[in-house]
Amino acid sequence: MNDEELLKNEKVGKVLSPHPLSFMKYQSLCIFLIIWGILVGWFVYFSDWQNTFTDNFWLVLTFWGIGLLLAGVVASLVTVRWSIFLLYLGVFASGSTIVFWLGLQESVGLFASFYTVVFSIIGFLIVEWYRRSHKYIISNQRITFKGGILTKEERTLRYDKITDISAKQGIVGQIFGFGTIIPISQSGFGLGADESFAGGGIQLGEKKAKFLGFFGGGREVQTPRTRSYFELHGVYPYKEVKKLVESMVQDSVVTPYQQEQVSFQKEQVDIQKQMRDLLKMQSESKDEQQEPENEKDDDS
């Protein structure tokens, strides 16, 4: 943070960025692509079914696509983010387009394996770029959250506006000492809702009346959640940063004792003001009494 951005009497305590492993949920998507790309190549060229795959272009393409799409559905339901499914769908759609465009039907197994691995490497680079765009500045007056790759976003939160703090550590975070801290403001900023839904249908009958059934379920839970730009996401060292933020919040809260002190000081000021007004009134009364006496002395 530049000196021009600092407030009066503001001092920066820490400047933090997310831990390199804090975005493991995105990195795991790239890891799966590497594993699946290698498995596709093994099934097509080295497994006991290599003859079946080699002689059937559509089987290889379908096998590759089903693996990607099923993984995308499962990951989307678990994380409540259908963007993951769309991402895997985009990998399959773009890869299939390249296969038909360049006429790679005979070597589709090799292409699918190579293309999936290369795409995962690009994904790793994007995730790292995204991580490095985060910056958190903790000062003696506020917390400033900054981030953004193309569009820069910034949030400022004063300690006296924080009503609660949510903190969490995953398994990897407990091992490497990083975690996420979500300051919840008075307006409820920092709270979100998780909702998951799954449905399925079955259709029976051909000539007779057909039966169609659809089953689904939904769940909504209010939980501390916000964008990684607006929380202390994956900060290290977790315990030290958490203690620092809690101390800052505690120092900004007026305790009952401090309220009594302020109230007592206010009462003292009011009493002093009343005494001053009373003395002033007495002084003016004496002056008014002395004026007639002075006039009598002048007449005599």
Task: Describe the structure concisely for a colleague.
By secondary structure, this protein is of the alpha+beta class. It has helices at residues 24-45, 50-54, 57-79, 83-102, 108-132, 171-176, 238-252, 256-299; strands at residues 12-16, 135-139, 142-147, 153-158, 162-168, 179-185, 191-204, 211-224, 232-235.
Strand order of the largest sheet: 1-2-3-4
The total domain count is: 3
| CATH class category of the largest domain | Mainly Beta
Helix coverage percent of residues? 40-55%
Which fold name fills CATH's third level, the topology of the largest domain?
PH-domain like
Count of strand segments: 9
Strand share of the residues?
Answer: 15-25%
Order of helices and strands: EHHHHHEEEEHEEEEHH
Biggest sheet features: 4 strands, antiparallel
Fill in the keyword field for this structure:
300 residues; alpha+beta; PH-domain like; four-stranded antiparallel beta sheet; 8 helices; 53% helix; rod-shaped
Q: What does it look like?
A:
This protein has a four-stranded antiparallel sheet with strand order 1-2-3-4, with no helix packed on it. It has a three-stranded antiparallel sheet with strand order 5-6-9, with helices on one face. A two-stranded antiparallel sheet has the order 7-8. The model is unreliable at 194-205 and 207-221 (pLDDT under 50). The chain has helices at 24-45, 50-54, 57-79, 83-102, 108-132, 171-176, 238-252, 256-299; strands spanning 12-16, 135-139, 142-147, 153-158, 162-168, 179-185, 191-204, 211-224, 232-235. The protein is built from eight helices and nine strands. The protein has three domains: 3-18 and 134-252, PH-domain like; 24-131, no CATH class; 261-300. The protein is of the alpha+beta class and 300 residues long. Helix 1 runs antiparallel to helix 3 (57-79).
